[in-house]
Amino acid sequence: MRITVYYKNGRHQAFIVPRDILAAEFRQIAEAVGGRIKKLVFAHSSDINFFKYRAHQ
Question: Which of 12, 18, 26, 42 gets the most CB atoms within 10 Å of its CB?
């Protein structure tokens, strides 16, 4: 699953995350990378498949 994390400092980072990771564990990892979290955006599988299709054309 792809999750984009937006941080309070204005930066953002995309993560590829296994489905079986605990939310608390992911939060700790994401905060260790960039600081306090402002919001999370979860990519739907249809969005990812569209991107893969467009990238291979």
Answer: 26
